[in-house]
Amino acid sequence: MRFFLMIFSILMVLASQAQSPQVGGQQYIVKEGERLAQIAKEYLGKRCARKKIVKATNLKAATDEGFESIARMGKLQAGQLLWIPSQDSEEAPNTNSQEATIVEIPQTDCEIRIWYNYQVVAISVINEYWIEQGLSLEERAKAAYEIRHQARINARYMMQDKTAVEMLRKRDKLKYGNPDGPTFDYLLEKNLKKGLAKEKAYESIIQSASKTSTVFNKDCVD
């Protein structure tokens, strides 16, 4: 598991060092009550193109102080300046080039949330593999917890708003006694106090580790 985390960290560094291309397009001033999805629909023809506006605006913000990076797609302010990429700038990647982009590093809070959710929902499938490999229930519970725990830490590291990260850490410190979320021992003790047998407690940890939060996900739905 540490090997995969190391590879991910290396990819993060390489991606941050790569020069991102600028895209053609036009600037747009957000009006009161407007949402990113409707702007994408009007100018790019589809609501799901809002991610392209986010990426283009964040690229502009890196070199132009008139633009502000978009951290959350569901949170636009009236008067906010966006950069809408032109249709002809949205070319398919050149698969014959060694410089072709294969994957993108999450940038906005919503992209990070989606990345985090992928780590979480995969746990239930990976658990089946662990069973095939003969891992004990306790080992599987600890492995599931570790994936979820590391995903939380990595997601917070990628967040641009460090004030928001600190608020999350303070919340977890008050709730769990640990700024990085509940420990494995905390979750085990919590389940045992509910009257669950240890085997059932381990199963509960695996199940809870593979569930996403609708409370946080709703901010990323337009």
Strand order of the largest sheet: 1-2
What portion of residues is helical?
55-70%
Oligomer: single chain
How much beta, percentage-wise? under 5%
**Which overall shape is indicated by the principal axes computed on the Cα atoms?**
elongated
Order of helices and strands: HEHHEHHHHHHH
Terminal residue distance:
35 Å
- Characterize the biggest β-sheet: 2 strands, antiparallel
Alpha-beta content class: mainly alpha
Q: C-alpha Rg, in Å? A: 21 Å
Unreliably modeled segments: 5-22, 90-102
Mean pLDDT over all positions: 81
User: In the residues, how many domains can be counted?
Assistant: 2
Q: Total helix count?
A: 10
In total, how many beta strands?
Answer: 2
Which helices and strands appear, and what pairs or packs with what?
Blueprint: H1 2-17, E1 25-29, H2 36-44, H3 50-61, E2 81-85, H4 109-121, H5 123-132, H6 137-158, H7 162-176, H8 184-193, H9 198-209, H10 214-217
Antiparallel strand pairs: 1-2
